[in-house]
């Protein structure tokens, strides 16, 4: 018993300075660990030693997805311009085709400079609108219903069947369906442009996104006027 | 019990008891617990971040493996079974002409001036090869299948990969020596299973790969009836090309002008007339 008591006393010695050292060491370790974690997060976007926007960034995502989206507008407009008999449709189609193809060239040019493929390699679209990934802090997620892995279909994007249908039509039926598909296409692409305009840190990307929003809003008006004049109803969103 | 004993002991060595008491009183339990909790939390944050980023890096590395870049120009070099051939581009034949292709399905060589629609199109019937090859020159990938061996749910797997996906096309190819053959300009991979992961790897590596197709930025849009009508495309010709067919060298084909000229294509040396010959 006596021995046990002595041992108890020895196990709880006065350790004032020892405790202080322990506290300081632990605090230092904690700070280092947190610093290392922050370092991992902060370093990532520029990990390739260049300042190019990387995979998963708003810039790369916007350039890839918007060029796919735009290129379909070019396909629709190419076909309409080649096959319509209506001068107003032909003029609109020429405007859409030439403007959007030029903008696709800008976006694909950026992708070439950034060493990124033309299309998202995952085969999924709009993942870049799901909010910040590695270079953001958890909890600061942006208000978005986008699943982090992206989606198979972009709003406004026509299906292969719809394209085939357009190609099978002629005369007024062709004009009407072209207007319907193009209106839905313009309106469907707007949220992508809006997101890039709001969230990209690269001025050229922001400027193009803002310009797409403004010019397509004007074109939506024209489309609606042409549709009203022809008694054509808008298609529901897709 | 212990307290009682301690009291009795207190008289014995008051100094040591007092020291123990002071030590006990001065020990900053709150601080120690806070520090331990902090260290554990910090370790947790670091560990979580590290594991998450590691998983992300692995995922990106897996994708990057098949993404063309300046240091990885042709990722298909890592795919087992890919056949590569170098073809001169820009050699055009007329809609009435045939090309004596060296491969089946062909994946390069002279071709019709009108390209096949390659904007994510599923052709239900076999299409004239001369048009399909032109679409490859524009950076598309053509998935061909043997209609006797691939149908139903197997065919649906291939349709899923192509339908509505820009720069892809799918068509049957009668007499194909494997169930599936995937082509891009100068590249071919033949596989036996529609679920072979190499199909997707091939597509990722070569679809619009700026390092491997001749006409960067070229269109895949349908030209329309009279040229190439996607609803009624020129049919595949299963017969052997006759002696009048254009050979792979391009002899008898029209050259597209600014394109690379194959050595065999020029039958006569260029005639320099006196009017174009610079003086001096």
UniProtKB/TrEMBL annotation, chain A:
Keyword Acyltransferase: no
Residues annotated as domain DUF305: 59-226
Keywords: Membrane, Transmembrane, Transmembrane helix
Keyword Membrane found: yes
Entry's transmembrane regions: 21-42
Highest taxon above the source species: Bacteria
Protein name: Uncharacterized protein (DUF305 family)
Organism, as annotated: Kutzneria viridogrisea
UniProtKB/TrEMBL annotation, chain B:
InterPro entries, per the entry: DUF3105
Record's compositionally biased regions (Polar residues): 251-266
Keyword Membrane: yes
Designated name of the protein: DUF3105 domain-containing protein
Organism: Kutzneria viridogrisea
UniProt region (Disordered), positions on chain: 224-280
Residues passing through the membrane, by range: 29-51
Keywords: Membrane, Transmembrane, Transmembrane helix
Bias type Low complexity, positions: 267-280
Organism placement in taxonomy: Bacteria, Bacillati, Actinomycetota, Actinomycetes, Pseudonocardiales
Pfam families: DUF3105
Domain of life according to the entry: Bacteria
């Amino acid at each position: 018993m006596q021995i046990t008591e002595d041992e108890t006393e020895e196990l709880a010695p006065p350790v004032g300075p020892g405790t202080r050292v322990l506290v300081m060491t632990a605090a230092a370790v904690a700070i280092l660990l947190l610093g290392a974690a922050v370092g991992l997060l902060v370093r990532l976007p520029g990990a390739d030693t260049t300042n190019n926007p990387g995979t998963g960034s708003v810039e790369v995502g916007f350039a890839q997805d918007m060029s796919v989206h735009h290129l379909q507008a070019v396909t629709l407009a190419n076909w309409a311009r080649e096959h319509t008999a209506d001068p107003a449709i032909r003029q609109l189609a020429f405007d859409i085709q030439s403007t959007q193809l030029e903008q696709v060239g800008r976006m694909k040019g950026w992708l070439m400079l950034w060493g990124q493929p033309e299309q998202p390699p995952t085969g999924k679209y709009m993942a870049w609108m799901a909010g910040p990934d590695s270079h953001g802090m958890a909890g600061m997620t942006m208000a978005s219903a986008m699943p982090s892995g992206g989606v198979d279909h972009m709003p406004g994007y026509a299906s292969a069947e719809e394209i085939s249908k357009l190609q099978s039509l002629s005369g007024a039926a062709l004009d009407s369906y072209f207007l319907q598909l193009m209106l839905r296409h313009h309106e469907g692409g707007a949220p992508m442009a809006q997101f890039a305009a709001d969230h990209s840190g690269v001025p050229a990307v922001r400027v193009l996104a803002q310009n797409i929003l403004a010019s397509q809003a004007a074109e939506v008006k024209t489309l609606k006027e042409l549709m009203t004049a022809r008694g054509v109803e808008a298609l529901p969103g897709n | 019990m212990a307290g009682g004993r301690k009291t009795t002991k207190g008289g014995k060595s008051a100094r040591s008891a007092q020291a123990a008491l002071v030590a006990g009183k001065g020990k900053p339990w709150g601080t120690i617990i806070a520090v331990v909790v902090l260290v554990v939390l910090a370790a947790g944050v670091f560990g979580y971040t590290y594991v998450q980023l590691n998983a992300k890096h692995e995922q990106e590395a897996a994708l990057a493996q098949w993404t063309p870049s300046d240091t990885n120009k042709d990722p298909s070099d890592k795919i087992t079974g890919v056949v590569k051939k170098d073809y001169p581009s820009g050699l055009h034949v007329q809609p009435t002409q045939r090309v004596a292709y060296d491969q089946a399905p062909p994946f390069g060589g002279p071709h019709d001036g009108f390209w096949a629609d390659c904007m994510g199109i599923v052709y239900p019937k076999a299409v004239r090869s001369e048009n399909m090859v032109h679409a490859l020159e524009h950076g598309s990938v053509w998935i061909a299948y043997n209609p006797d061996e691939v149908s139903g749910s197997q065919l649906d797997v291939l349709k899923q990969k192509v339908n509505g996906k820009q720069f892809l096309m799918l068509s049957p190819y009668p007499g194909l020596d494997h169930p599936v053959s995937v082509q891009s300009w100068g590249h071919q991979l033949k596989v036996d299973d529609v679920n072979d992961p190499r199909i997707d790897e091939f597509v990722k590596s070569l679809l619009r790969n700026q390092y491997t197709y001749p006409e960067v930025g070229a269109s895949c849009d349908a030209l329309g009836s009279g040229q190439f009508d996607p609803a009624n495309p020129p049919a595949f010709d299963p017969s052997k090309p006759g002696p009048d067919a254009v050979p792979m060298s391009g002899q008898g084909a029209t050259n597209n002008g600014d394109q690379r000229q194959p050595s065999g294509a020029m039958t006569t040396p260029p005639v320099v007339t006196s009017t174009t010959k610079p003086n001096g």
